[in-house]
Design brief:
With 397 residues, this protein is of the alpha+beta class. It folds into 3 domains: 86 residues, Elongation Factor Tu (Ef-tu), domain 3; 155 residues, Threonyl-trna Synthetase, Chain A, domain 2 (Threonyl-tRNA Synthetase, Chain A, domain 2, 2-Layer Sandwich), CATH 3.30.980; 119 residues, Diaminopimelate Epimerase, Chain A, domain 1. Helix content is 35%, strand content 28%. The chain has a 6-stranded antiparallel barrel. Strands 16-17-18-20-19 form a 5-stranded mixed β-sheet, sandwiched between helices. Strands 9-10-15-14 form a 4-stranded antiparallel β-sheet. The chain is elongated, with a radius of gyration of 33 Å.
C-alpha cells in the first residue's frame, strides 16, 4: 500500500521513499513505493510525471480500480529496497490542479444555472470537457453557457477556500454532495467553501482564485440527449486568449483595421469573393461551350488543353456530343502537374479505360473514376499525353 502524499499536500514537489517492489513487464520497468507524490491517472485527471531516483517517470497508474497500490512506469530500472528521491513536474501538476478545481467550479455553476448534472469529465488536455445529462437545443444551451460562465468566474473572484477531508461511510448520506460516490467505505470529499461539495480523489488548489480565469469555448450535442461543453482554465485559458489575440491582431493588420473591425472586413471580402466566383463561373461556362464546339468540329477522338477553371464544365459538355471521345488537360497552380479528364459520350464509355491504360499510364498518368476518368501526370509529359490520345484518332477512327 502506497501512502498518498499528494493528498496530504498537493503543492509539494519533492519527497523520499523506499522501493517496495521492482519488476519488468512487457518491456516496461515498474516500481511500487511505500509513499509517493506521483498522482496516478484517475477520475479524468492525468498522471504526474517527473523523476524518481534520477530516472524519468513515464506513467503512473492504479492496477486495481479504487485499490491501494500505485505503480510507477520508469525509463530505467530501480533496485527493490532502494531509498530514492522523487520530484514531480510541477508545471504539469499545477495545470492539472487548475483543470480539476475549475471543473468542480463549473459543474456546480451549471447545476445552479440550469440544473444540469455532470455525468462525465475529461481533464486529459488543456481543453477540458464536461458532459451533462440534457440536450436543451443550441439556442437554450448558448444561454445556459453564458450564465454558467459568469457564475463560475464569480466563484473565482470570490476566492473561495478549497479543502479535502475523509468522511466515514456512515456519514456520506448525510452530506449535501453534488453527486454520490462510486466507492464504498470511507470517502474523500473536496469542498469549495459555500459553493460545492463532491467526492473526489484528485489534486486541487487552495482557493478558487487560482483556477481563473475560466472560459467556456463551446458545446456540441452528445449521445442520447446529452451535451458536451468545452472549457479552459487558469494558465491554459490565458494562453488560449493570448494565441487568439495574436491571430486576430495579425489578421487586423492585413486589413489595416482594428481588431473589432475584422468581422466587417471579412464579410466584405466574402461578398466580393462570391461575386467574383459567380463571374468566373459564367466565364468558365462560355469558355467550356466554345471548347466543346471546337472539339466537336475537329472530330473524335480529340485532345485539347483548356484552363483549369473550365476543365470540368468542358468535359460535361463534350460528353453530350454523339460519338464524343476526348482528353482534356489543364495545368495545376504552380505548373508542376497537369490535371487530366478523359470523357466520352455514354455510347463510347467502354473505350475510356483501355485508352487510359494503354496510352496514358505509360506516361505516368494516375487516376480513376466511374464513367469519366480523372487524374494527373507531370506537366512535362502533358504534350505527349495529348499527342497519344490524338493519335488514337488515326489508329481507331
Amino acid at each position: 500500500m502506497s501512502e498518498r502524499l499528494f493528498w496530504q499536500d498537493p503543492y509539494a514537489t519533492a519527497f523520499t521513499a523506499t522501493v517496495t517492489r521492482a519488476w519488468e513487464e512487457d518491456g516496461r520497468f515498474l516500481v511500487e513505493l511505500d509513499r509517493t507524490l506521483f498522482y496516478p491517472t484517475s477520475g479524468g485527471q492525468p498522471h504526474d510525471t517527473g523523476r524518481l531516483g534520477g530516472v524519468r517517470v513515464l506513467d503512473v497508474f492504479e492496477p486495481e480500480k479504487h485499490g491501494a497500490r500505485i505503480v510507477h512506469v520508469l525509463e530505467a530500472p530501480l533496485e527493490e529496497g532502494a531509498q530514492v528521491e522523487g520530484k514531480i513536474d510541477w508545471t504539469r501538476r499545477y495545470r492539472h490542479m487548475q483543470r480539476h478545481t475549475g471543473q468542480h467550479v463549473l459543474s456546480q455553476a451549471f447545476l445552479r444555472a440550469a440544473q444540469w448534472n455532470t455525468i462525465a469529465v475529461s481533464l486529459a488536455g488543456p481543453e477540458i470537457h464536461l458532459d451533462f445529462d440534457v440536450w436543451p437545443g443550441p439556442e437554450a444551451a448558448a444561454e445556459v453557457l453564458e450564465k454558467a460562465e459568469a457564475l463560475a468566474n464569480w466563484a473565482v473572484y470570490a476566492n473561495l477556500a478549497v479543502s479535502a477531508r475523509e468522511v466515514p461511510e456512515a456519514q456520506v448520506p448525510l452530506l449535501p454532495l453534488r453527486r454520490m460516490p462510486k466507492v464504498r467505505g470511507a470517502v474523500r470529499v473536496v469542498e469549495i467553501e459555500d459553493w460545492d461539495l463532491a467526492p473526489c480523489g484528485g489534486t486541487h488548489l487552495r482557493s478558487t482564485a487560482e483556477a481563473g480565469p475560466i472560459k467556456l469555448l463551446g458545446f456540441e450535442k452528445g449521445k442520447k440527449k446529452t451535451i458536451r461543453v468545452y472549457a479552459r482554465t487558469g494558465w491554459e485559458a490565458l494562453e488560449d486568449y493570448a494565441a487568439k489575440h495574436r491571430t486576430l491582431k495579425a489578421l487586423a493588420g492585413r486589413f489595416s483595421a482594428g481588431v473589432f473591425d475584422v468581422p466587417e472586413r471579412v464579410q466584405k471580402l466574402e461578398d466580393e469573393l462570391y461575386a467574383a466566383r459567380g463571374e468566373a463561373q459564367a466565364l468558365a461556362a462560355e469558355l467550356a461551350e466554345r471548347y466543346a464546339r471546337e472539339l466537336a468540329r475537329s472530330g473524335f477522338p480529340a485532345a485539347r488543353q483548356v484552363p483549369l477553371a473550365a476543365l470540368a464544365e468542358t468535359g460535361r459538355r463534350v460528353a453530350e456530343w454523339p460519338g464524343a471521345l476526348a482528353l482534356l488537360a489543364a495545368l495545376e497552380p504552380g505548373g508542376a502537374h497537369a490535371r487530366l479528364l478523359l470523357v466520352a459520350h455514354p455510347d463510347r464509355e467502354a473505350e475510356l479505360r483501355p485508352l487510359w491504360r494503354e496510352r496514358l499510364e505509360p506516361l505516368g498518368a494516375r487516376g480513376g473514376g466511374r464513367g469519366h476518368i480523372q487524374g494527373r501526370l507531370p506537366a512535362g509529359r502533358l504534350q505527349l499525353a495529348l499527342m497519344a490520345v490524338a493519335g488514337a484518332a488515326k489508329e481507331n477512327p
